[in-house]
Amino acid sequence: MDLRVTVMKRQTPKEILTASFQELAATKSVDKITIREIADNCGYSPATFYRYFKDKYDLIAWEHAGAVAEIVSRVGEGDYLWKQTLYDGARLYNDNKAYLANLLKHTSGHDYFMRYMAQINCDALEKYILSVNGNRELTHEEMMCIKIYCFGFVGLACEWIMGQIETTPDEIAKIYERSIPDPLKNYLL
Asked: With DSSP H G I counted as helix, E B as strand and the rest as coil, what are the percentages for the chain, rounded to 5?
């Protein structure tokens, strides 16, 4: 008789609220989704929503930060290199294109959302480079290169998500890899 114990990961309220939002965003414009709808859809109250998020854009940003952190956290595990994060990130965006396009098309905070996405990527990249360089403070030039790379990365990703650029996830990941600024190449390639 096999008596294995199955460990079930319980979802946090943030994860449940995020899943509720995603479910609603699959069929409804993001601007039209209310906090009450998000909360009602998962059996929570609006007060519970506000305990975890200041607004739906905060929820969206938290979700994106988690997805980026999950991909970046794998760097250094076995043969998983920075290059693989680019491919996995492109596939993540491709797999969620309809949802992300809804976010970009139907949010009044479109520019804020793009800046926030870029900043999340900057923070993740800076953290990764610090882990690779032994936590040596980055130079002003390196920090500017991180910003220009991440803001360009997000801008291109948004155009691709919106259908303004026709390409495959692998092709866009190759462009991301080729466009790494010289001062960052020693850390990332």
From this structure: 70, 0, 30
